[in-house]
């Protein structure tokens, strides 16, 4: 018979020992079901409990030490301490409302081999204590998701990222921002249901395109045409640039009211449901996914920054395809500056013949905000049913608009304007279009489809497409804009 050592005190109500088959014989130390008891421990380290059918005594090899009944770690010092033994705090599914300047980042989505917005965000969440050390080794443990993916160098004034984080600290947003670079800001978070998917819950998106008004200046006298495609490619690599005197004249341009009105009328023609197969790649006219609905397309009043006049174009749509926004803007620029009939041009662009339409530079494109109107209506309805006690608020940026506007001016607009001033991006784009009109015979002919030359050809070697990743926003069912 085993020798029994002094008993350990347990604070729980013990369960009956297992039967040995003989009702007159009870297991050693078996308590009655309702009493608080002392549990004997054998000298060989095995608990008296567990000697019934199919159970073997001995130390718990998984933990490396003795264990108390019901799976609790032993309190006699024989159990090894667990790693990351910090107090466990509950994770909550939230939607983070944020803004960022994409300069110097390789895109939005986290990538182990690149510097990304989500990579910086994850590290900031860990440093702020919103992610426990047990989960700090992998972003997958917090279920990161996003309403829209942005590529290299692209900015966002209103983006939503979902994740499971610790939000018990009332100052958690302040601590997250303290751990993030100044070019990435989190404005607040909203509690969401566990099944929330920001990409699917987002029912529309608003994009902004910033451009200097000098792009609407009438074309200069035609330059000497490039002798061949080899010379064209070389020009694309080194870039065509106006002289400093010419650029001074361009930057002094101020758009007349009648030209601005033409821009607004042309943008308005995109509104509604249309077939945009000519505004993307790899889409045919009969492909139903090429039909998109545009809620609005507007142009702001002009404003001056650093001596150059600018316009802000904003397009609100359900979803967008690869290159769609840049081609929409590019077509309007060339129609207005060349005084082409926008009615006929637009009518041809949305019909069946495949046409080559120009892409405006990627520099001016940014995500203005993602919209969750349908989701917010459901949240409001649920809160009403529960008497206003639902802890899940709507996902809206309005309460933080002043902070967002200040961030956009300081980090996003300033970056776009500085890059344009240093590199003359829009000027170079216009000069290439003028130098290679054969790439866009549809526009050169005044919007008439003359022959098969209007079928899509390789684009002219524009400087924004040379040696750089396509700076496109990616949203909607095609994950591109």
TrEMBL record:
GO BP terms in the entry: mRNA processing; mRNA pseudouridine synthesis; snRNA pseudouridine synthesis; tRNA pseudouridine synthesis
Positions of the UniProt region annotated as Disordered: 14-92, 460-481
Domain Pseudouridine synthase I TruA alpha/beta: 266-373
Record-annotated active site: 151 (nucleophile)
Localization terms from the record: Nucleus
Residues annotated as binding substrate: 207
Database matches in InterPro entries: PsdUridine_synth_cat_dom_sf (IPR020103), PsdUridine_synth_TruA (IPR001406), PsdUridine_synth_TruA_a/b_dom (IPR020097), PsdUridine_synth_TruA_C (IPR020095), PUS1/PUS2-like (IPR041708), TruA/RsuA/RluB/E/F_N (IPR020094)
Catalysed reactions, semicolon-separated: uridine in snRNA = pseudouridine in snRNA; a uridine in mRNA = a pseudouridine in mRNA; a uridine in tRNA = a pseudouridine in tRNA
Record's compositionally biased regions (Basic and acidic residues): 57-70, 79-89
Main location class: nucleus
GO terms assigned for molecular function: pseudouridine synthase activity; RNA binding
GO cellular component: nucleus
Keywords: Isomerase, mRNA processing, Nucleus, tRNA processing
CDD domains: PseudoU_synth_PUS1_PUS2 (cd02568)
Similarity-based family: Belongs to the tRNA pseudouridine synthase TruA family.
PANTHER family from the UniProt entry: PSEUDOURIDYLATE SYNTHASE (PTHR11142), PSEUDOURIDYLATE SYNTHASE 1 HOMOLOG (PTHR11142:SF4)
Described purpose of this protein according to its UniProt entry: Formation of pseudouridine at positions 27 and 28 in the anticodon stem and loop of transfer RNAs; at positions 34 and 36 of intron-containing precursor tRNA(Ile) and at position 35 in the intron-containing tRNA(Tyr). Catalyzes pseudouridylation at position 44 in U2 snRNA. Also catalyzes pseudouridylation of mRNAs.
Protein name, UniProt field: tRNA pseudouridine synthase 1
Species, as recorded: Tieghemiomyces parasiticus
Taxonomic lineage from the root: Eukaryota, Fungi, Fungi incertae sedis, Zoopagomycota, Kickxellomycotina
Gene expressing this chain: PUS1_1
């Amino acid at each position: 018979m085993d020798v029994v050592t002094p008993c350990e005190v347990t604070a729980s109500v013990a369960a009956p020992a297992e039967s040995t088959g003989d009702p007159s014989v009870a297991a050693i130390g078996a308590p009655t079901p309702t009493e608080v008891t002392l549990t004997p421990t054998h000298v060989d380290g095995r608990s008296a409990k567990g000697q019934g059918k199919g159970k073997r005594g001995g130390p718990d090899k998984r933990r490396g030490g003795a264990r108390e009944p019901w799976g609790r770690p032993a309190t006699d010092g024989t159990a090894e301490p667990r790693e990351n033994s910090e107090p466990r705090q509950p994770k909550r599914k939230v939607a983070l409302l944020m803004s960022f300047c994409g300069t110097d980042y390789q895109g939005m989505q986290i990538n182990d081999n690149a510097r990304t917005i989500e990579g910086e965000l994850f590290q900031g969440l860990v440093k702020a204590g919103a992610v426990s050390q047990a989960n700090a080794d992998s972003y997958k443990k917090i279920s990161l998701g996003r309403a829209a993916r942005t590529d290299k160098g692209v900015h966002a004034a209103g983006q939503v990222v979902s994740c499971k984080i610790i939000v018990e600290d009332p100052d958690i947003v302040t601590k997250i921002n303290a751990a993030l670079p100044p070019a990435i800001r989190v404005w607040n978070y909203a509690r969401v249901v566990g099944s929330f998917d920001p990409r699917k819950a987002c029912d529309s998106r608003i994009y902004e395109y910033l451009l200097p008004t000098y792009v609407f200046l009438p074309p200069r006298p035609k330059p000497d045409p490039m002798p061949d495609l080899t010379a064209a490619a070389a020009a694309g690599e080194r870039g065509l640039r106006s002289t400093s005197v010419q650029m001074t004249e361009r930057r002094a341009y101020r758009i007349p009211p009648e030209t601005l009105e033409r821009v607004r009328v042309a943008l308005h023609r995109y509104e509604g449901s249309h077939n945009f197969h000519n505004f993307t790649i790899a889409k045919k006219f009969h492909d139903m996914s090429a039909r998109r609905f545009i809620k609005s397309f507007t142009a702001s009043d002009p404003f001056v920054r650093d001596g150059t006049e600018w316009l802000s174009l904003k397009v609100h749509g359900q979803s967008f395809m690869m290159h769609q926004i840049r081609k929409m803007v590019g077509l309007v620029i060339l129609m207005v500056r060349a005084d082409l009939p926008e009615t006929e041009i637009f009518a041809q662009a949305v019909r069946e013949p495949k046409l080559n339409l120009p892409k405006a530079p990627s520099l001016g494109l940014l995500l203005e905000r993602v919209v969750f109107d349908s989701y917010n209506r459901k949240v409001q309805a649920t809160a009403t049913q529960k008497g206003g006690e639902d802890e899940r608020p709507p996902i809206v940026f309005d309460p933080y608009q002043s902070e967002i506007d200040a961030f956009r001016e300081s980090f996003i607009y300033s970056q776009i304007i500085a890059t344009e001033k240093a590199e003359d991006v829009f000027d170079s784009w216009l000069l290439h279009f003028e130098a290679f009109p054969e790439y866009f015979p549809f526009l050169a002919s005044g919007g008439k489809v003359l022959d098969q030359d209007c079928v899509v050809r390789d684009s002219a070697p524009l400087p924004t497409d040379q040696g750089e990743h396509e700076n496109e926003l990616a949203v909607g069912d095609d994950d591109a804009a």
